[in-house]
Amino acid sequence: MIPVTKPYLPSREKLDKYIDGIYEREWLTNNGPLVQELTKRLEEYLGVENLLLVSNGTLALQIAYRALGIHEPVNGKPAEAITTPFTFVATSSSLEWEGIEPVFADIDPDTWCLDPKNIEPAITAQTKAIVPVHVFGNACEVEAIDELAKNNNLKVIYDAAHAFGVKYKDESLLKWGDAATLSFHATKVFHTIEGGAIVFKRKEDLEKAKKLISFGITGPETIEEVGINAKMNEFQAAMGLAVLDEIEHNYYAREKIWSYYKEHFSGGFKTQFLNLQSTNNYGYFPLLFNDERELKNAIFKLNLCDIFPRRYFYPSLSECALYNEVLDMPTSRDVSSSVLCLPIYKNLSTDVLVTIGEILDGILQSR
Ligand SMILES: *Cc1c(COP(=O)(O)O)cnc(C)c1O
Asked: How many angstroms separate the alpha carbon of residue 65 from the centre of ligand 1?
């Protein structure tokens, strides 16, 4: 079976070396030496400061909201955050878990990121934050969002789960916002099996978050905050270090597949319009079909050849009864109902690429 993605497994010898160290030290968690080493190496690699490793990307979001005080009610009513409905459900569910009401604003029809011009009308007296997503690693309109936030006294937390290593105007995209969060889940470009990180703009927010991820305990006899357990452990960090050692191989393999798709399909299918000022990490290759019927036909034909692409992101969260009574977000709904992410991972074979090419060419010809 050909899935949409496979986790990158680094050299076993390299991983074993890191694990040997864990056995020697007998130090498994609580900010161990490998977690410290990975923190430093990621700050260097990404070109950022104030990075905090956590146990997954969902908790990264929750801790970021807490450290920035978004969860505190406004005049006795729940705080609100304006966010995109075209994302993985964790962007919204993490807000709900912190008692923050997600308020959707529709996406841009070309970039598929939160459209800045839809943000302002969604602002109310309860609004405390904007939570945009660099969807499929595509940089949001960060300058426009930044200005809106400043003018309206709002915090910005970017869900950058897809944007590992992405640069915007030659600097890390993660520098934008009061915080940017990453997911290091096994399916992401860089991973620690499960894991995540927060990059804070300000050191004081990092210090607050450090307390939050470890029960609010700040010393053997002091508890300063109502915290939670969101620590990364040494085995996760060992995997992260081994994957980071080989990250360029991973990019190289993904870029080749991405470019094949791009060359083959961009004439016939619509795809995401990429921010021209930013780099690409080749995490996803989404294609847009004319409509849901055409998409389902493509999935059916690919499945017959044992190829299983994914409907990322479907359904649009604005259509999802869990989050509100049906809100009309036509762009998100339309993109969601006709988008498909093609398989992309290191050892995907050329044969499979050719098969996908033939099947989708057939779809184009029958238009
Ligand atoms: C993967 C992902 C998350 C959640 O990360 P986990 O590490 O799986 O908890 C959050 N937001 C987006 C956009 C994601 O793709």
From this structure: 15
